Amino acid sequence: MKKFIVWLLIFTFIIALLTPFGVVGYYLKNFDYDLSKLTHYNPPLTSQIFDKNDEKIANIFDKQHRYYAKFEEIPPRAIEALVAIEDTTFFEHPGINIDAIFRAAIKVIKAGKAVQGASTITQQLVKNTLLTREKKLSRKIKEAIYAIKLEQVLTKEQIMERYLNEIYLGHGYYGIKTAADGYFHKKLNDLTLKEIAILVGLPKAPSTYAPTKNYDISMGRANRVIKRMYVLGWIDKATYEKALAENPKVYNDTLTQNKAPFIVDEVMRLVKQMGIKDFKTGGYKVYTTIDLQLQQSAKKALKYAYDLSLERIEGYKEKAYKKGKTPEEVDTSRLNGAMVSLDSATGDILALVGSIDYNQNSYNRATQGKRQPGSAFKPFIYQVALDLGYSGATELVDIAKTYKYKKNGEELKWQPKNYSKNYKGLITLREALVHSSNLATINLVNEIGLSELLAEFKKFGIKNIPHDLSISLGTMSLSPLELAKYYTSFANNGVQVETHLIRKIEKENKIIYKKEHKERFITTPEQSYIMTTILKDVVKRGTGVRAKVRGIELAGKTGTTNKNVDGWFAGYSPTTLTVVWFGNDDNTPMHKKETGGRISGPAFSYYYKEMLKYYPQIQRKFEIPNGVIEVDINGKTEYFSDISKPPKKRNIEKNDEELLF
User: Fold this and answer.
1) Is 238 found in the same domain as 90?
2) Under 8 Å CB-to-CB from 249, ≥6 apart: which residues?
3) Are residues 115 and 204 in the same domain?
């Protein structure tokens, strides 16, 4: 009887062990299971943005930060290490490890509770993608069934590829390629054995073993992986000891790694315009024209000029108090700025900063802020004059005039003045632009004729130009980026180029967008160079002296709008064009002494000094085109061409064209 009871117990135990396999077999044979999420594996992928040197600017993702690694990209050592610690018989079993299940069952019976799992890599993949995390026998049975089914439709390599892309590895990283980049700033094939061991040891408890949180614990787990590989004979003793001794450097980055938020925002806006709706999950690679070094320089330059302005304004107050006067009350809380820099020949945007501090204000004034350019617009008028036969030596009338006009039936008067509140009588075209004479410019426009000037302006493609004399003072609205585009007409030898932020966009190693170079002929290199010589003088001895940088030729123009609402400097070196703007966001005046040259010139100068540090080999002098003639006039060099010939004495006739306002 006792023997019978023993056999009955053994029989019952065997039935108990075999029953789950019977249940699994029944459900495996009689029911279908949806494996499409794994057979047609399409996880959300992170898009990346790069600068011109392919240095990463940022990661863009929705909920899961993941780079995808094909099986061929995954180092064999990584697969060996994973299999060693997680599932030694992975390449032999059919999805479940029966031996492991029996061992686990015996330990459960002995302990009276679950003490050891028996999940294969295939089962772990199924659990993470197809099932809930509930700890029930029914879920475990489903897991086994799904695993067996999956092994029948996918190869071991495909299962391994999906597993290593799906698993969570702590710190917000999904997949081994993502974690390699995040923790170590390395590509998969550059990882050391110790770094690989850290990564494959993470799935068991990613929060506990994450090296950014618990470095020592993570190293201990990695050492167990390495020891397991050594015990299995998969690495030799020298490799084993070297790996144990290594202590890799671990980076604790933010997930986005956003080094240039204004660039990221602008890229997001542009890809949306292109109709790309899955940018945050589609795994795109956007290669921009940005130079990250110059981007940081532009950011520092803008802050530098901003701080100088605040210091000056405090200085103005102190001087007023010392003289017993009430200082001008200026609210500097709304003062802000923007800067954009281009490669003059290609239109590629090298740097773009939309405010003093993105964290305080993310509105991008460089692309979205439309403000009046003031005198920074004058070079366009003077270029038209040069192309009509004027030269730098042509004399212009610099006297005050009263212009009468009618508006809504009422007769009004306009009495423009120079910023310096004086006038020269007669002044050369060069000196008029160098010292930004309003009166000479207005009289030049009147002399050319408004209708002819507007007709000539069509070649620049400038929009919303006012059809009245206020054009002389730059009263249209432009963003810094738009003004920079138009200034390529001077900086690029008379050829205006379209601006670009994105070089190309790739998805799955296929190019889906590539920039297209577009240009517009404005004038000849000779005529453009004559303008450059005048704008060089603006920087050397005119309103733009604060933009000077030793060791490089610079040309440019200041711009200050009525009541000092806007302060601009637009200028260029032989290769690079840069526009700086400052003003109050609510369009109220800045301090009355804060002109374009004073507030924006220092930012321009700072930026080019930084550029020379990074690129000392950059071209530093403008090249003189063959058709330009240099003539000494009263000890000063003037430049002429077949179009802009040396002037003769001429009488300025009164232009009776009706003035429009």
Assistant:
1) yes
2) 184
3) yes
Inside any domain, residue 156: yes
Please state the separation of Cα 575 from the chain's center in Å.
21
Strand partners, 521: 495
Q: Are residues 220 and 313 in the same domain?
A: no
Per DSSP, the three-state class of 426 is: strand
Q: pLDDT tens, 342-396?
A: 999 999 999 999 999 999 999 999 999 999 999 999 999 999 999 999 999 999 9
User: Tokens for 278?
Assistant: 């899955």
Q: Are residues 299 and 238 in the same domain?
A: no
- Single-letter amino acid, residue 576: T
Looking at the chain, the number of H-run helices and the number of E-run strands are 22, 20
The dihedral region occupied by 95, where left means phi > 0, alpha psi between -120 and 50, and beta the remainder, is left
Do 529 and 592 lie in one domain? The reply is yes
Q: Which residue has the tokens 């005039």?
A: 401
Q: Which amino acid is at 272?
A: K
CA angle, 255 then 258 then 264, to 5°: 125
pTM for the whole structure: 0.88
Count of alpha carbons within 13 angstroms of residue 360, beta-carbon side: 10
Which amino acid, residue 255? L
Residue closest to 82 by CA, chosen among 185, 222, 184:
222
Distance, in Å, from the CA atom of 496 to the CA atom of 522, rounded to the nearest integer, reads 7
Catalytically active residues, by annotation: 86, 375
Closest CA to 502 of 272, 324, 219: 272
Number of domains the chain is built from: 2
Helix 121-130 × helix 76-86 angle, to 10°: 90
Cα gap 490→533, rounded to integer Å: 10
Strand, coil or helix: 40: coil
Neighbours of 163 (CB within 10 A): 25
Per-residue pLDDT reduced to its tens digit, 180-214? 999 999 999 999 999 999 999 999 999 999 999 99
Residues 305, 392 within the same domain: yes
Statement to judge: residues 379 and 506 lie in one domain:
yes
Q: Does residue 280 lie in a domain region?
A: no
User: Can you give the CATH number for the domain in which 449 is found?
Assistant: 3.40.710.10
**Rounded to an integer, what distance in angstroms lies between the CA atom of residue 597 and that of residue 541?**
12
Domain span at residue 481 reads 293-640
Q: CA 224, 229, 235, 238: dihedral to nearest 10 degrees?
A: 20
Q: Indicate whether 152 belongs to any domain.
A: yes
| Cross-strand partners of 258 | none
d(CA 636, CA 649): 19
Mark whether 333 and 436 lie in a shared domain.
Answer: yes
Given its phi and psi angles, is residue 74 left (phi above 0), alpha (psi -120 to 50 degrees) or beta?
beta
Question: How far apart are the C-alpha atoms of 42 and 50, rounded to whole Å?
Answer: 24
Whether residue 6 is contained in a domain is answered as no
- Reported as a single tens digit per residue, the pLDDT across 472-507 is 888 899 999 999 999 999 999 999 999 999 999 999
Residue 196 is part of a domain; what is its CATH number? 1.10.3810.10
Yes or no: say if 403 and 386 are a contact pair by the CB < 8 Å rule: no
Q: Measure Cα distances from 19 to 14, 16, 105, 144, 503 in Å.
A: 8, 5, 13, 14, 62
Rounded Cα distance, 637 and 645, in Å? 14
